[in-house]
Amino acid sequence: MLRCELHFPDFALMARLFCRLHPATRFLLWLAVALLLPALPLAGLGALAALGVAILLALSPTVLASTLRRTRLLLLTLMVAFAWTVPGDPVLGMSWSPTWQGLEVGGEHALRLLVLVCLIRVVLFLTPDTAQLAGLYTLMIPLRRLRLDPERMATLLWLALDEARQWLDRRRVALADVWAALAADAPVPADACGMTLQCPRFQPVDGVVLALAALGVMLVWIA
């Protein structure tokens, strides 16, 4: 069941189909997009960023607003850093001016970051917490061959994603509070207990979607 009321009917069918996928498939689709981004031109990045923003806006304008508010300085920093460090044609015709090539490179990096942040917010918004953990655990199962604990790895990754989501949702966080939270020992609840995780099985639609995603990544990189 969707955790939101869609504001744009055009995305309702897309969201329902997405929610039928295995949680691990949802994370793999996000990974496929991340692999596509370096091979896309600036126009493609802009179109994908607009799509990601539109989907997140359709799901929850509040989530979109908090995401853009938290990432705006990082996006601006990317633009400024590359605009003044990449050599090329100056924008203002002066030696200290940013370059057009630097603005283009900075824009590409900023758009890639915007796409990744918006789409992972979409995945987390449409996936309940228990399903998120089940999906991450499924992806971590192959790590057993490396003698790593998939339960521990999935839990740590899920906690990191949840902390990042909470940070994006906060309106304002003081730097002193951040350092204090990092330095403090995490409290252990007195009623802490175990949890039984039920992992759904992969369906044929998951195989079809993943095969199409892998084919798309290969075609883009080959082209």
What descriptive keywords fit this protein?
single chain; about 220 residues; mainly alpha
Plain-language structure description:
It is globular, with a radius of gyration of 20 Å. 67% of the residues lie in helices and 0% in strands. The protein has a domain of 106 residues. It contains 9 helices and no strands. It is mostly helical and 223 residues long. The N terminus is likely disordered.
In short:
By secondary structure, the chain is mainly alpha-helical.
- The count of strands amounts to 0
Distance between the termini: 39 Å
Helix content: 55-70%
* Poorly predicted parts: 1-8
Number of DSSP helical runs: 9
Gyration radius, to the nearest Å?
Answer: 20 Å
* Shape designation: globular
SSE order in H/E notation? Answer: HHHHHHHHH
Mean pLDDT: 82
Reported for the largest beta sheet, the result is: none
Percent strand equals under 5%
What structural category do the secondary elements indicate? mainly alpha
